[in-house]
Amino acid sequence: MKTILFLLRKEFLQIFRNRVIVAMIFVMPIIQLLILANAANYEVRNLKLQVIDQDHSSWSRQLVGHFTASPYFNLTGMVASAKKGITAIEADEADLVLHIPSGFERALRREGTASVHLNINAINGVKAGLASSYAQTIILDLHQEIMPVVELPAGLSSTFRYWYNPDMDYYTFMVPGILVLLVTLVGMFLSGLNIVKEKEIGTIEQINVSPIRKHQFIIGKLLPFWIIAQVELALGLTVGWLVFDIPIVGSLGVVFAFSSIYLLVVLGIGLLVSTFTDTQQQAMFISWFFLVIFILMSGLFTPIESMPGWAQQITRLNPVTYFVDVVRLVLLKGSSWWDIRSQWIALSIFAVVINGAAVLNYRKTD
Amino acid sequence: MATSVIETHELTKRFGNFTAVDRITFQVQPGEIFGFLGANGAGKTTAMRMLTGLSRPTAGEGIVAGYDVYRQAEQIKRRIGYMSQRFSLYEDLTVRENIQFYAGIYGLPWRSIRSKTSELIERLQLGEVARTLVGSLPLGWKQKLAFSTAILHDPEIVFLDEPTGGVDPITRRQFWEMIYAAADRGVTIFVTTHYMDESEYCDRISMMVDGEIRALGSPHDLKTQYDQPDMNGVFLQLARHSERS
Fold it and tell me: Does A7 sit within 8 Å of B105, measured CB to CB?
């Protein structure tokens, strides 16, 4: 016990004496959170819209009015022909061109049906998809308005409500996930690089030739970063709550209990990497390799449901996936410890396997 | 020779096809200053790493402080001190913090950690710099401090791997005075060096060439045996046909 106390004291002294590390732990993640939360935003605003109105009727003007009133569209010009519309898209003067053919209002009044045509630049598929769905919503709005006037066939209509994030707020969705990434980065790099650094400067020899036991050394190395990462999570949640107003529906106790297990996995990976690398450079690159895969396949930026089957199987081994999932479930939906049992059971198994492998692979004698 | 503190019999370490240490056999008596001499790459460090439990021998036998190097490496570690070739203190900790850390991980009682730390700082006259980071001390001071921390837990044997590399002659002289003082208290000193003049300070020395011990005896005996005025001559005669240097 005393040995572990001395190891912890040494680590904390070294960490807090190193200004770069202190900045890395406490300042950088907060800056990243503030920047990333705004950058990792799927909302597309100010789409450049050009309109070909060949009908010049009150309803066609009403439709255009709806588009210009929407924050998603910016009317950048009226064009005369479909051909000029395509030219505008080619010249990047328009993201989409709305074509209202002549006879639009007449057809609606007489036959109860009419169509408009949208040409959308789909180089960025996500943006095009969003443009299309925003436009359809606006067209549907017009439909609702004129229905009483011209007895349009009601057809099937649906109403809906967004649960757990009623305003479809992207901060609410992204900030908890980004927090997970920041805690992961700090945990994995600091723990891994720390041990490799001792290998590089040679002090690990002095530790290995002492009677320190393996578990004492490993606890001495993991516990400081475990504590720091938890503090960091608390700090990040505070910033998320104060700055981005993220809701905290569930219990913070559940979040921290889960992160306790999660950090064992992440720190264990760092430790495992450090046992088979000799320089900080090697450890850095190997950690990055895993981190990039973990992050891109975590379901933070792209839904796991849209990945191919084999990729979905891989995400089941990705610890980041579980925490991103859980932090959203608990903060937004209020899930309980029991609701997320499959996630913490899985992570507990990971923690045992990874730390077991790291302990086996760390040798005092070569 | 049941009283030897170190006893090896044909101790060998191979890395693939390369035999770093080739069947070395020797004994070291309690309180002796035993010098391990040889050119760079002769296998001195590898031999020392096997004796300190850092490296597992490939073949042969080795007993250190009464414990077997294969099965009882951890018991050995409690009874030895070690100062590696690379600087072994934490440069980003202060003098006092380093001493306390090493005292702590060897499990010294609290009272003794406090008293030994103060005593050592006083003895090395480091009172002025006790709160200075070790990284900013001159190399000679660092080496003396590293040696003192290596024997803080009163080990039976202390292993020193080229302790005076890169240190000026005056500091080397002071360093050897510290070694003598420790030996007088009954600590066995096992020291590697490639400074031949330093070997004259040892009670007995072994000359390693290409992983083998080519000569073993007191400096006086070796000089007589090889008919040389100094240890340098002995070394040159032995190492002349070395394949590794």
Answer: yes
Domain B6-239 adopts which CATH fold?
Answer: Rossmann fold (3.40.50)
The whole-angstrom separation of Cα B81 and Cα B77 is: 8
Give the residue from A22, A206, A278 with the most B CB atoms within 10 Å of its CB, the best one to mutate.
A206
Q: Does B77 touch chain A (CB under 8 A)?
A: yes
- Report percent pLDDT > 70 for chain B: 99
SS3 state of residue A330: helix
- Residues of chain A positioned with their CB less than 8 A from the CB of B110: 2
Domains of chain A listed by start with CATH number: 2-40+167-361 (no CATH), 47-146 (3.40.1710.10)
CA distances from residue B29 to B4, B26, B176, B182, B189 in whole angstroms, order as listed: 5, 10, 19, 15, 10
pLDDT digits (tens, 9 = 90+) for B5-26: 999 999 999 999 999 999 999 9
- Complex ipTM > 0.90: no
Measured in degrees and rounded to the nearest 5, phi and psi for residue B44 equal -60, -50
B101 contacts on A by Cβ (under 8 Å) = 6, 9-10
**What is the pLDDT at residue B196?**
85
Taking the CA of residue A217 and the nearest CA in chain B, the distance in Å comes to 10
Q: Hey, what amino acid is at A111?
A: E
**Are A206 and B88 a contacting pair at CB < 8 A?**
yes
Burial of B16 (0-12, 13-18, 19+ CB in 10 A): exposed
Q: Residues of B with CB below 8 A from A206's CB?
A: 82, 84, 88, 102
Which residues 6+ apart lie within 8 Å of B123 measured at CB?
A: B148
pLDDT, tens digit, for every residue of B86-142?
A: 778 999 999 999 999 999 999 899 999 999 999 999 988 888 999 999 999 998 889
Mean per-residue pLDDT of chain B: 90
Domain ranges of chain B: 6-239
